[in-house]
DNA sequence: GTAGTTATCGACCTGTAGTCGAAAACTACC
DNA sequence: GGTAGTTTTCGACTACAGGTCGATAACTAC
């Protein structure tokens, strides 16, 4: 247990921030916030927002601070750590660059409809069809997408992607965009309703152009993103 | 996006390694690997094994390397990242110590029965009754325990705590030690059996001193810890 | 052989979720 | 106003996973 000399690392934070946008056909589609690198390495490629951690802040505080430079922070409804990415060669050494940078990856969510103004180099890109991603940021996006898929099905994390009020069809579209397969709105209502996650507002959405019965508006019951996981197996005896 | 001067941090890894031991009454009990600090700060308190990350290794490699100094690494059946602990004051600055140390916390598992020889200052301590823990290591233990409890109920992670062959009563004891409440061995068999997680060996354990039918021996089917999560809701349509 | 002990299996019940079709509530057109 | 078309909503039905409990099996000790 001899005290080492000061082997130190630069530490950066990187967030894969998702939101729900529209694809060419108007269907809900999962998007991720990216900016286009201007400098070496990987100039021209899409990269995740983030940056170096300062001396007086936690990695979580740092992530919030750096995201605020890209999007309105009030629009970010959820932010959680994903893991540490620390391959020695994940960022190539170069002039004015430290030899090693350790990164803490985050998963972020922005509700559908909250499309804040973005800087010039920044945009929402469709997750399904991403051009090559800078450095190891593609790995972080994949891990974030995996985490999102998993949690959406057993927590109320979809709250982070849904607008304040929504119809069941809209919510089913969000689930479809995240999970990659169709969701029956009828089943969604019963499942989330019984879990106590959603409740009706009492009003209906304006009817669509193609007619049809106007849809009731719903909201999520919990304002905060307290994760309520209803694992079935091995509960305490009653 | 101006390139900062080199703000760097020491980075350490810390593992909460659990195993199954026996309590005073012979019941299965969850233990965590700790060593007693000799120096400031928090001299005399129990602390998690770990240490500084070197320049040429990932945090995961570093964790494995540092654990090998405490226990036989072959005995560690599972090791996964928990999260980053980065409060600016989590490690007090002092003579010969950097002002800030960022830590990556890990959850580790050692199977019951594999009790390798330990260094003088190191021992397995009962998780339920821990004396005050050094620095923020108590937080890491709590987070690791939470993660373990959650994953044990919807994955095959108990494999990491169980011996190669076991009876259902033994396995139920492991689950009870982890979850903190009784588990019906009968139900455990049906649930894990249907999930394809366990299978019978074909032999029986030697009967106990107090008589009774000899118990069949089981093993986990998957040698590796591939996590198979059978979340029920929102599956793809068939 | 009989009592005591432990393990195993099956029956039964409950709760959750997928599927599907009927009814409700609207628009558009004649 | 009536009819066809569209979309939502609700309920019935089914399948399946898991908790509970009692009966039976397989042993030891006397």
Describe the protein in words.
- The structure is a homodimer of 238-residue chains.
- The first copy, chain A, is an alpha+beta fold and 238 residues long.
- Helices cover 21% and strands 26% of the residues of chain A.
- Chain A contains four helices and nine strands, in the order ββββαβββαααββ.
- In chain A, strands 1, 2, 3, 4, 5, 6 and 7 form a seven-stranded mixed sheet that branches. In chain A, strands 8-9 form a two-stranded antiparallel sheet.
- In chain A, a hairpin with a 5-residue loop joins strand 1 and strand 2.
- In chain A, helix 3 crosses helix 4.
- The radius of gyration of chain A is 20 Å and the shape is globular.
- Chains A and B meet through strand 1, strand 5 and helix 2 of A and strand 1, strand 5 and helix 2 of B.
- Strand 1 of chain A pairs antiparallel with strand 1 of chain B.
- The first copy, chain A, binds a DNA duplex (30 and 30 nucleotides) through helix 4.
CATH class of the largest domain in chain A: Alpha Beta
Pair with the most extensive interface?
A: A-B, 52 and 52 residues
CATH homolog superfamily of the largest domain in chain A: Nucleoside Triphosphate Pyrophosphohydrolase
The helix/strand series of chain A, from N terminus to C terminus, equals: EEEEHEEEHHHEE
Largest sheet of chain A: 7 strands, mixed
Low-pLDDT ranges of chain A = none
Tell me what the CATH architecture of the largest domain in chain A is: Alpha-Beta Complex
Q: What's this entry about, in short?
A:
2 copies of one chain form a homodimer. Chain A has 238 residues and is α+β, with helices and mostly antiparallel strands.
């Amino acid at each position: 247990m001899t005290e080492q000399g000061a082997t130190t690392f630069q530490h950066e934070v990187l967030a894969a921030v998702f939101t729900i946008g529209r694809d060419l056909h108007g269907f809900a589609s999962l998007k991720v916030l990216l900016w286009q690198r201007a400098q070496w390495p990987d100039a021209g490629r899409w990269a995740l927002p983030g940056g170096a951690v300062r001396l007086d802040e936690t990695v979580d505080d740092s992530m919030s601070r750096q995201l605020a430079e890209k999007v309105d922070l009030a629009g970010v409804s959820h932010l959680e750590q994903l893991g540490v990415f620390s391959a020695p060669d994940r960022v190539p050494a170069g002039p004015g660059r430290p030899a090693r940078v350790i990164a803490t990856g985050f998963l972020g969510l922005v509700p559908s409809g909250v499309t804040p103004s973005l800087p010039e180099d920044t945009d929402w890109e469709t997750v399904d069809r991403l051009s090559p991603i800078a450095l190891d940021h593609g790995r972080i996006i994949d891990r974030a997408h995996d985490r999102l898929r998993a949690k959406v099905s057993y927590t109320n994390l979809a709250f982070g992607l849904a607008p304040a009020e929504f119809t069941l069809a809209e919510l089913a579209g969000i689930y479809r965009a995240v999970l990659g397969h169709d969701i029956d709105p009828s089943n969604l209502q019963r499942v989330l309703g019984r879990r106590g996650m959603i409740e009706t507002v009492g009003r209906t959405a304006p009817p669509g152009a193609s007619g049809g019965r106007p849809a009731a508006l719903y909201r999520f019951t919990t304002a905060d993103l307290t994760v309520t996981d209803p694992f079935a197996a091995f509960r305490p005896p009653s």
